[in-house]
From TrEMBL:
Cited InterPro entries: HAD-like_sf (IPR036412), HAD-SF_hydro_IA (IPR006439), HAD_sf (IPR023214), PGP-like_dom2 (IPR023198)
Name of protein: HAD family hydrolase
Organism in which the protein naturally occurs: Leucobacter iarius
Single GO MF descriptor: hydrolase activity
Keywords: Hydrolase
PANTHER family: 2-DEOXYGLUCOSE-6-PHOSPHATE PHOSPHATASE 2, PSEUDOURIDINE-5'-PHOSPHATASE
Keyword match RNA-binding: no
Length: 240
């Protein structure tokens, strides 16, 4: 199993917004709706270039370091806001012996900070944005995640909450399941869209993978958890 982090496991977007707004305001730039949507799911260095294009007079590395540092400080000072069902499913997968990797565009120190909030052994590998040759939507991060677990990408299922992440996961060859949170995913290249992970268990994930592998990713309709079994029985879904 391959897992995105921000917005999929932990609701860290409010932390990023605080950090981004503080930086942009110093340069007289507003964090408007258009920029905010562009940032969701983006790699940190891609986001830094968006900031530079808007007038932030810092290097990309300086922008990434400041934003990530502020998010880490906020995370350390408060309680983590886990996404519904994520911690429970991760625990069930760990107990069942299903290997999981964290595949995030956050920097390694932030990824490790979140991973350390979960029980030891939750992730067999962590792939972070400052360790990849190409950020999402390139398939490189997910290919690295599968390789780190020692399994072929075709044997992996990935959970994502953004179009950028779904493009990365689907292009890698993994089964890509979208979990809509802050942006719409209906037109993203997903094998399925689940309303949330709440109530999902190892059996549901196994059924989904069995039914969805070998199918083409494409536009999907969001399925409520109660209707999930119907979804995996009809993996073609329908356009949102």
């Amino acid at each position: 199993m391959l897992w995105d982090m921000d917005g999929t496991i932990i609701d860290s977007e409010p932390l990023w917004i605080v950090a981004e707004d503080a930086m942009l305001s110093r340069y007289g730039v507003e964090l408007d709706a258009e920029l905010r949507e562009q940032l969701i799911g983006s790699g940190l260095w891609d986001a830094a270039e968006l900031f530079r294009a808007r007038g932030v007079d810092l290097s990309a590395d300086e922008i990434v370091a400041e934003l990530a540092g502020e998010v880490q400080a906020q995370l350390a000072a408060g309680e983590p806001a886990w996404r519904p069902g994520a911690v429970e499913l991760l625990a069930a997968l760990r107990e069942a012996g299903v290997p999981c990797a964290l595949v995030t565009m956050s920097i390694r120190s932030l990824a490790d900070q979140v991973a350390e909030l979960l029980p030891p052994g939750t992730f067999g590998a962590v792939v972070a944005g400052d360790e990849v040759a190409h950020e999402k939507p390139h398939p490189d991060p997910y290919l690295r995640g599968a390789a780190a677990l020692g399994v072929p990408i075709e044997a992996c299922l990935a959970f994502e909450d953004s179009p950028t992440g779904l493009r990365s996961a689907a292009a890698s060859g993994a089964v890509a399941i979208g979990l809509p949170h802050l942006v719409e995913l209906g037109d993203a290249p997903a094998h399925a869209l689940w309303a949330s992970l709440e109530g999902a268990d190892v059996a549901a994930v196994a059924r989904a993978f069995t039914e969805l592998r070998g199918t083409a990713p494409g536009p999907r309709t969001i399925t409520e958890p109660a209707a999930r079994e119907a979804l995996v029985s009809d993996p073609k879904g329908s356009r949102a």
